[in-house]
Structure formats: C-alpha cells, structure tokens
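Final report, Chapter 2: Outcomes

The project's central promise was a pipeline that accepts a single protein chain and returns its three-dimensional structure in a standardized token representation, suitable for archiving and comparison. That pipeline is now operational. To close this chapter, we reproduce one record exactly as it appears in the project archive, with the input sequence first and the structure output second.
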Amino acid sequence: MAKDQTVLFHSTVFGPIHSRRLGVSLGVNLSPDDGKVCSFDCIYCEAGYNSQGTGTSGLPLREKVKGDLERKLRVMKEAGDPLDVITFSGNGEPTMNPDFPEIIDDVIVLRDEYYPDAKVSVLTNSTRIFTPEVAEALKKVDNNILKLDSAIEPTMRLIDQPVSKQFTVEKVVESLRQFKGTGIIQTMMLRGEHDGKMVDNTTSEEVDALIEAYKSIMPREIMLYSLDRSTPEEKLKKVEKPELEAIGKRIEEETGIPVQVN
C-alpha cells in the first residue's frame, strides 16, 4: 500500500540539521524546491514517489547554488555556528543536475574559505557514476556516499525501482570499483511488503550477496541503516539496531571493511 507522501526541501540550501550519520550538516538541494527529480523511485524515500511530479521551479543553476551557499556560510560564520559537513541530498538525485561537476568545485572553494575543517559529502544513488564527469567530481569530495541496497537484481529493482531498465546490479557493482578505498557504500536494510511482494534484504542470501559485492568494490567504509522516518510504502518495517549491528559485525569480519551502523 502506498500513500500520497511529499516531504520536500523548499530551498536550495537548507539547515543546518543534525544528521545521525554525518553530524551538523548544511544541506544542498540540487533538485527543484517544489518537486522531485530522481533516477530511482525508492519505496522508502522520505520525499515520496516520483509520481508527485517535478514541480515548476526547475533544477537550480550553478550561480544560484553558489550564491545561496555563500550567503548562508557567511551568516553562520559570523554567528559562530559550528558546521561538520556540507551535504548534497534534497529532493532527488543530486548528480542529475547538469551543473553538478562545476557546483562541486564551487562548494569546495567556499568550504575552504569559510569552514576549512568541514567535510563535503554527496549522497548518491550511484546511477550516474557511469558518466566520467560525474565520477571525477565525486572523487573530489571527502565523503562520496554511494547507494547499494541489494546485490540481488530482483530485490534491488523492488526496493529502488530504477527508472532505467539498463541499470543493473552487475553494472553498478563493476562501476563502483572505481572508488576503491575512497567511496563509502550505504545500504538501507528493511523488510515488509510492496505491490504484494515480500521485501527483505536482511536474509542470509541477501547478506551473502552484499558481502561478495562489498569485497569486489572494496570501499573505505560501509554504512548500514534502516528506516527513521515515514515512507511512501506503508508496509515496511524498520530493522532494529541490535540486528543491524549483528549484520554489520558479520560483514566487517568477512570483508575487513569498517562498518558503521546507524
């Protein structure tokens, strides 16, 4: 069962907010401020399904992002406010903005000027890492956080609902290897039901497949997390932290890769 959920950020720069994974975070939304643009249509997305539409404001241009961010950083700096990270997230997939590579360059310059100790993080669903300019931009940031929710094709398609039929687990795992030792793989663990089909990426079979994928990719870190907010699919259940920690311990033991559980 799905509900008509739209939880959008109505500005290009938002926050700061406290992220359970990243600390005090200032958000950058490269999607419209009144709609959603994403190459996935995840059943757990707090912003709702893509069917809500793309809005009317369009994707923010490079100049707007730079101006809005600089004004916010200046105000925060003058007020003595702390900042741990500038995070690209928002109402969809940030790398779909055609100015993404140039915006990354601008943000790094602004970060160095106002908060040189802050990190720049990008939350990406990994659909655009096949584009060289996007991949090179991701290699410049401190925390390149790349999604891999399942290493089993039917499960990935059920959870993430990629827009492109050409996007496959095999292709994305192969391309994720370019971030060996630097990328961070983020996996949403959940169970429940969608469209009459059972969803559960915590089974032994699923975890085995993830472990093999992680070994192939060899990221610098793995992030495991579960539901924390309302989701458009109502029949989903959160995986509680003790179970997440047990899965994380197994993954860490078998891959040698540090696992962060949130």
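Archive annotation: Helices lie at 62-79, 100-114, 132-138, 153-160, 169-176, 204-217, 241-255.
This record, like all others produced under the grant, will remain available to the consortium after the project formally closes.
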